Amino acid sequence: MSENAIRTKELVKTFPKGVRALDGVGFDVAAGSVFGLVGPNGAGKSTTVKILTTLSRPDSGEAEVAGLDVLRRPDAVRRAIGCVAQKSGVDVQATGRENLLLQGRLYGMGGRELERRVDTMLERFGLTEAARRVTRTYSGGMQRKLDVALGLIHRPRVLFLDEPTTGLDPEARADMWTEIERLASEEGLTILLTTHYLEEADRLAARVAIVDQGRIVAQGAPDALKSELHGDAVHLELDAVETNGRVTAALAHIGDVRDVTVEDGRLLHARADNGARAVPVMLQALEAQGVPVVSVTVARPSLDDVYLKYTGRRFEEADRAAEVTR
Amino acid sequence: MKTLRHTLHLTVRQVRNFLRQPWYVVLSLAQPIIYLLLFGALFKKVVEIPGFTTNSYITFLTPGIVVMSAMFAGGWSGMGVIDDLNRGVMDRLLVAPTSRGAIMLGRVTPQVLTILIQTAIIVGLALLVGGRFAGGPAGAAVLIVVSALLSIGVASLSNGVALLLRKEESVIAAVNLMLLPLLFLSSAFLQQNLAPQWIQDFAKYNPANWAITAGRTALMNGASSSGVMKNTLYLVVFAVVCTWLATRAFRSYQRSV
Hints:
The complex is a heterodimer of chains A (326) and B (257).
Chain A: E1 4-14, E2 20-30, E3 34-38, H1 45-52, E4 60-65, E5 68-69, H2 74-80, E6 81-84, H3 96-106, H4 111-124, H5 140-152, E7 158-162, H6 170-184, E8 190-195, H7 198-204, E9 207-212, E10 215-220, H8 222-227, E11 232-238, H9 246-251, E12 257-263, E13 267-272, H10 275-288, E14 293-299, H11 303-311, H12 315-325
Parallel strand pairs in A: 3-8, 3-9, 6-7, 7-8
Antiparallel strand pairs in A: 1-2, 1-4, 4-5, 9-10, 11-13, 11-14, 12-13
Chain B: H1 2-19, H2 22-42, H3 57-75, H4 77-86, H5 89-95, H6 100-128, H7 136-165, H8 168-184, H9 197-203, H10 207-221, H11 228-256
Helix pairs in contact in B: 1-6, 2-3, 2-6, 3-6, 3-7, 3-8, 3-10, 4-7, 6-7, 6-11, 7-8, 7-10, 7-11, 10-11
């Protein structure tokens, strides 16, 4: 089947306080693929997942999951999907095994079949030994694995992973990546992954959509998005804040240099076919204008650069800004 | 059918988690005992007021304490909802095809079990310290039923408040602001005809008083005494309406996430 497992169109959601969380989000996810929704905190990723998993309702727009309309047939959608929310949903007073058994029963499973499925899940996620321990005693990584196991117990067709690795230490994150790669190779399972780690989407997702302030600003295969950028990213840090436009003017006539943006008056981003060759010329031009440069970075294109190109901001800045305004 | 099945599973979860906190179990069972003995000692002489028709205050007070414990246990129910909200358990249940009614009932039915045990302990203790109940086991059964109905209604309201406001403080405020007046504007501690007229008028619309009147009449005079049936029916309506309201609160919650 080459059908789309998820289809969304023009999703709009405004919170009661008037904050516009989604401002016309639309994307499709092919069945059996891994799709990454990437964006800084507060971009609207979780809100999108909450709508697709029937937890929340949009003000307007359409959404279908596994061929089912999320607004008209929420209960059928619920049976078809598994969801690992951003916030762990583990009942910390129950054991790992009890958590899984209850979850299975809520999906109408029971008896021997459920017992076997629970054992399989525990083993698969390396939780067999801890199965009879109250989950309050689990590490963050173990709780997160149990979350994924809870999302999979009923063999869903579509799995939502909302920031599955946020807050995990590097080792647990690597573990989770391996696990997601393994899931992705499983027959027919569609995964929608949200993350604010660009490298995570780059590694795991076949296609990504970059979300910014409730809108999708770019989507495609990570490699295709990066190759659209043509060339290396050059980042310069200026010694002092420059606001009078002479910086962009100075660099405007260097043939190889494009997409010049200045962030906060001090961080200069540009793109060049050959970064190593462009940098000396750029430095010279800035020197001639009396603009001292503190540091220079040249990098192969990354999703971060894609983000910068479409939003005019660096990803980390946007992420930090979102933390502050929260 | 699904609602019943899910209620059972969620009740099991609730009871199991409750039993994992032994101190909490002991405290919640000991509290009404303390109230019975303290209030019993404090107001011992109340029965000497002219017009008081019972001659043992413990006998009079016992159904009041049972209903009071049930009502407050119900009131605190929302704290568990807040905990589930904070821990993400509520969202997990809502994203699964869990019966919404069962999410509410699964919090309320464990309380009925608690009330059963509490009532046995309180009535047993009252018998030890001199209380006498002409209504016998049938009367005690009625007391349990009306306490459970009141507790279901109050717990549902508490759960609804928790879903709408999502702060522990709001549940605490609602419990103290609503339940304490309901308790004092009832005949829990004092025979109704000895209270000021306005309190008597208010008590007619007070669910706590319905439960106390029905429970006390049944326990002291027998399950088939007049007034028992009427007040029990009021409580059935109260419990059903509150449960329905609380289930509606899910819609409001889901609109706001």
